[in-house]
Amino acid sequence: MPISVKMARRCYAEELRFSANVTSRAVIDAFATVPRERFVGPGPWKIKSPMWMGEYWITADADPRHVYHDTLIALDAARHQQWPAEPMGCFVRPTRH
pTM for this structure? Predict the structure, then answer.
């Protein structure tokens, strides 16, 4: 059985702890709570992996769980506008305690 969207958000947030070295529990909890799909429009989505910056590919359907990966999501592929502008690891900086 597939995981819920809520669980996909939590897994995505927890993965950012390692891929972006996020140490703030508040930031992790924010990523686990905020519905990313609200910012990228309706699916299916054109996505691109930061590990392979070739062409975008299109998700199989509009399942919001597709956007809970560290990928770039096209807002306007023809104009090279994507969300986020860089992979999340580039935006989230570690905090010092």
Answer: 0.76
